[in-house]
Amino acid sequence: MYTVNNGLMVRLATLKSMGFSILPEGIVQADLKEGTLVRLLPDYTIDDPDMKVSIVYPGRQYLPAKTRFFIDDALNYLSQEFAAAAGRPDDIIRSPMPRRSCRCRGRAARRRPRTDATLGRPGARTAAAGDTTLRTSTSPETMPAPNATRLMLFSSRQYDGDTFTQANEAFGVELDFQEAHLDAQTAILARGFKAVCPFVNDSVDAAVLERLHEGGTRLVALRSAGFNHVDLHAAKRLGITVTRVPAYSPHAVAEHAVGMILTLNRRLHRAVARTRDGDFSLNGLLGFDLYGKTVGVIDTGIIGWVFGNIMAGFGMQVLAYDPGPPAQDLLDRGARYVGLDELLANSDIVSLHCPLLPSTYHLIDEHALARMKRGAMLINTGRGGLVESNALTGALKSGQLGHLGLDVYEEEGGLFFEDHSDSLLQDDVLARLLTFPNVTITSHQAFFTREALVEIASTTLGNVKA
Ligand code: NAI
Fold first, then answer.
1. Which residues line ligand 1 (CB under 6 A)?
2. What is the pLDDT of residue 164?
3. In the annotation, is 444 catalytic?
4. How many angstroms separate the CA atoms of 391 and 365, rounded?
5. Cα-atom radius of gyration of the chain, to the nearest Å?
6. Model confidence over 167-213: pLDDT tens digits?
7. Would the CATH topology of 150-248+451-465 be identical to that of 250-441?
8. Cβ atoms within 10 A of the Cβ of 350, count?
9. Where are the domains of the chain?
10. Is residue 181 annotated as part of the catalytic site, yes or no?
């Protein structure tokens, strides 16, 4: 069973039986009075009747986890609610769904796990290993039942411990937090653990999966949306299930991208440092109005879709590119779906929100940078591999690229999420990029909001308990 995005989970067979249309590109379109949109990645197969997909409300916040419940009931409930709300989908989203629903009463509190299959493309990357055990949550008072599922979290930090421990009160999983990255050397730590939970820069390649398998691991529960670091073919061969958190807070990532745009445009990073130093001059801080400018959104999946809506709110013209179907509400707000070349040539700001796939690797390379509007801004909160880092310095030096905001970096493994302030930066490309006044780099923190962490923890634990 596969889940895509967030929101209500729907069995495909149920949708079909309710007369929803399933288009060849992989979109399921539903129209419950106000209209709902179900998106599938175009290359996901859609012939599995047990496959679960999700409903996202155009222009609305997706449903929070606590309102999710089994879809047979949910669809009944939604039909009634859409009818009752008569054009006010906001009311539905804000209403505590389960309490007023007919057959779903009592099920609301049950967390529905979201399980992604080992579908997708292989693509393993390596990461440097740290080593020490952070802590374990299994204090004597909270010792789980003897047959409790055991989950080892790699690359754990204090915030992972805090949120997973709290969320685990509802799940009773035996948790073990390792600060070490997962790689071929550290995989042995998970011996005896049925489930492991890697993070984005852990290596989950064939060698690691084989070691995990030897140690009895049968589930890799990613605590991320991206799965480009997992060899899914190897997992399938070994019978290891891979799950992920398809969408935890698209708002977190989209809002961070907006934050980077505002920072770069109005030179906030420089202004703050200046005023702290007693320099109250404005020279060099000149920005431009976002209003009336053009933003290019590369992929309008759930994050790009939220981002596009925010930018439309600024009064920007939105140009969108996505190989999948367009988001209707973005079209309604005046967005235009165009080819990649047209988007690059006409956008004052280009923001990347696509997954890292073989086909999107180095999507922005030297040639793509040359096709961009001179002096445009590039924002990448997707994955580092989407941008050819080596091409950036030249484009910045020539002025072809006017501003650059990176939350992800091709070689971030072993660097990001760690404090390296006491050592010399060995990555010359990154070191050079950090010298530009019109570049801001954050260390993969776009996801890092309270709401997202809570959602990540509870969905991951739900996947483990499934
Ligand atoms: P999503 O699954 O909602 O959307 C993915 C989009 O990719 C869809 O619109 C789909 O049509 C498109 N797509 C599918 N195949 C494609 C192809 N071959 N070429 C180009 N586009 C293709 O994903 P979501 O949740 O919007 O996340 C997007 C990406 O953002 C993730 O893959 C992840 O890499 C990144 N991300 C970054 C975070 C951060 O902290 N910086 C946090 C979460 C996600």
1. 5, 41-43, 225-226, 247, 250, 253, 299-304, 322-324, 353-357, 359-360, 381-383, 407-408, 444, 446-447
2. 97
3. yes
4. 6
5. 23
6. 999 999 999 999 999 999 999 999 999 999 999 999 999 999 999 99
7. yes
8. 27
9. 2-117, 150-248+451-465, 250-441
10. no
Task: Tell me the CATH number for domain 150-248+451-465.
Answer: 3.40.50.720
Which residues 6+ apart lie within 8 Å of 380 measured at CB?
A: 351, 352, 364, 386, 387, 405, 406, 407, 408
Question: Of these residues, 39, 181, 267, 444, which one is catalytic?
Answer: 444
Kindly report the protein residue whose alpha carbon is nearest to atom 7 of ligand 1. 354
CATH number of 250-441: 3.40.50.720
User: How many CB atoms within 10 Å of residue 287?
Assistant: 13
* Strand 439-441 with 401-406, pairing: parallel
Q: Is pLDDT larger for residue 6 or for residue 74?
A: 74
Residue 412 annotated among the catalytic residues of the structure: yes
Ligand 1 mean position, distance from CA 192 (Å): 33
Task: Kindly report the protein residue whose alpha carbon is nearest to atom 9 of ligand 1.
Answer: 301
CA of 323 from ligand 1 middle (Å) equals 11
Q: Which atom in ligand 1 lies closest to the alpha carbon of residue 304?
A: 26
CA of 97 to the centre of ligand 1 (A): 29
Tell me the pLDDT tens digit for each residue of 249-304. Answer: 999 999 999 999 999 999 999 999 999 999 999 999 999 999 999 999 999 999 99
